[in-house]
Amino acid sequence: EFICLTDENDQPTEIQSMGMEITARVEAEKALNKEYKLRDALFSSLRDAVFILDADSPTILDCNPAAAQIFGYQRDEMLGRPTDFLHVDEAALAAFREQLYPALNEKGYLHLLDFSMRKKDGTIFPTENHVIPLLNEVGEQTGWLSVVADLTLRKQAEERFRAMFEESGITMLLINPENGALIDANPAACDFYGYKKPELLKKNISEINILSDEEIQGEMQKALMEKRYSFLFKHRIASGEICDVEVHSTPIEIHGDPVLFSIITDITAKLQSEKIAQESQEQMVLAVEGANAGTW
Q1: CA angle at residue 115 from 124 to 60, to 5 degrees?
Q2: Which residue, 83, 112, 163, 237, is the most exposed by fewest CB within 10 angstroms?
Q3: pTM, whole model, 2 decimals?
Q4: Sequence-distant (≥ 6) Cβ neighbours of residue 156 within 8 angstroms
């Protein structure tokens, strides 16, 4: 079907096909529906709790299945309610709001790395929060997007790691891979290096490892990129003695930042024993060769 467009004098100016216009509209609707389905699938598959909030009040307009699972509510129980029931108490809610707007003004979003919230059964649990404003095509705010990650398992893993780190008799260090600063040292490390913990943590790994700063940085980057895990170094301890050490270093994440977790083994005695054994073997070979030289 075609339509004829005319000017003010009723003269034909353009002929348009209604069929083509309808086809284009149908294709556009199909593409839009596909985009909506993809968005909904992504929204539903996220493991973190996702809330869509009203722009003028913290009322929950929508949430994904993970939000219901994490907080222990049915989805319908949360929709249409202000978010205060998810907070520990009024003081916690006030603290959250006090941080929200300064963060938005400074960075455009809020990121709380460790913030306690409340489940339906009253359980208080650690979370990581991201809040960003939702804007339309002209920059007007239409709502809020709040993403809440449950840190319970991560916290439990950190507690187990901390217990292992502190109680182990093996020398362990946590090192900043960017600048070589010592972030933490366990009691065994303090005993090995001969410093009290506050003294040791003031040091940089370059004050312990006798390699040049450039060489140390290169080796740390190998460990950080997981290109190498085991290293042989010489470390200087508090007495000034240089010890041969074997270092096993692997990257881990603490509070969202990359850190090198290093296990240090003193192999000085082992290398000395191997050297003595090698020298003894060489002397024995020379003695046998000398004895053979005198026989016929």
Answers
A1: 80
A2: 163
A3: 0.66
A4: none
